[in-house]
Design goal:
The protein is of the alpha+beta class. It contains two helices and two strands, in the order βαβα. Strands 1-2 form a two-stranded parallel ribbon. The longest helix is centred in the middle third of the chain and has 15 residues. The chain starts with a strand and ends with a helix.
């Protein structure tokens, strides 16, 4: 089974690298193939380029 990850950095939350590592480790332990990872590093609420990329990925 394939999985995708979407991570967004917030002021008081885990850094993107830590979120991504946790996702990849989850996939490895549970037999998922990490098909794609999408990131939004901007702390601006309207800056969701990674989210839009993920939606486009899912449409194709």
């Amino acid at each position: 089974m394939r999985a995708i990850g979407y991570f967004r950095e917030r002021n008081d939350k885990k850094p993107l690298a830590e979120q991504s590592r946790a996702f990849l480790e989850f996939c490895r332990r549970n037999g998922y193939e990490a098909a794609a990872v999408f990131l939004d590093s901007s702390r601006m609420p309207d800056d969701v380029h990674g989210f839009r990329q993920m939606v486009e990925f899912l449409r194709n």
